[in-house]
Amino acid sequence: MAVKTKSIAQEQPSEDAPRHLNKAATRAYSGQKNQQVDNKQIAEFLPMVHKIARQVVTYLKPPLSFEDLVSAGTVGLVKAAREFDPSRQVKFKTYAYIRIKGAILDELRGWSFVPANLNKRIQDALRLSQKILEETGSAPTEEELSEKLEIPIDELYKTLEIARAQHFVSLDWFGEDAPPLCNLLAAANTATADQQAERAELTDKLAEAIEHLPQKQRQIIIFYYQQHLTMKQIAEVFEITESRVSQLHSSAIFNLSVRLKEWKDARL
Q1: What is the pLDDT of residues 16-26, one digit of tens each?
Q2: Which is it for the CA torsion 82, 98, 96, 9, positive or negative?
Q3: Which end of the chain is more exposed for a tag (fewer CB within 10 A), N or C?
Q4: What is the per-residue pLDDT across 219-260, written as a single tens digit (0 to 9) for each?
Q5: CATH topology of domain 116-267
């Protein structure tokens, strides 16, 4: 599949795009037996596809066009409509959100590639941070990590931004109306008691990990995930550049991953 040449940040759906996607979705769904969600309802949820796709491209910038992600999400929406089972006492909006997001992430995974040398650096940074956290009870500062890894601070930031993208795709760390970073809104009514308990524990540990972040990183996480400010808006609040906000966001995600890994390892 050829990579699109348009910048994903500049990619915008044309006025005909919603109409085209509406037709494509309803055409794909039409003729199915035992329909639980009608064509009109599918069309009503198409804006959700666009919203989730925009959430992804705001900072990941994958080698795909906006339409690529919308197309994948639309397929996820159609599949959700086909497979939705109202007897499980889950709202279709919740189920559709999960399936749309999953379809977009699957598309991203197909394009995710980190060169071996960069992947090694990320793993080295994780191991080193984990070791320092275990020894001192605190995650290393950016300057400390840069010194220990023997790389310039700018290279560290690039490494952390790549790690952020890796964690996004592998851990699904973004939310809609949920607590930040993890998809903790997966239909609770369909989970087992053990799964619900684990989700609740993860939520507590995530909140605890956020509290341990440096103040500015913690504020950025809250602004971005809970108050839904853009990177540009956060930059205006702190009177710093948007690229600096992105760096601090990457560092915050990395620090959270280190602390949550510590919690996960302790449970094994």
Answers
A1: 445 555 555 55
A2: negative
A3: C
A4: 998 888 778 788 889 999 999 999 899 899 889 989 988 888
A5: Arc Repressor Mutant, subunit A (1.10.10)
Q: Look-up: residue for tokens 């598309």?
A: 107
Residue with tokens 């044309």, as numbered in its chain = 14
What is the C-alpha separation between 135 and 140, in angstroms, rounded?
A: 11
Angle, vertex CA 54, rays to CA 198 and CA 12, nearest 5: 165
How many residues can be counted in the chain? 268
Q: Is the pTM for the entire model greater than 0.85?
A: no
Annotated domain spans of the chain: 17-111, 116-267
* Cβ neighbours of residue 4 closer than 8 Å, sequence gap 6 or more: 63, 64, 65, 68
- To the question of domain 17-111 being in CATH 1.10.1740.10, the answer is yes
Residue matched to tokens 């909140």: 207
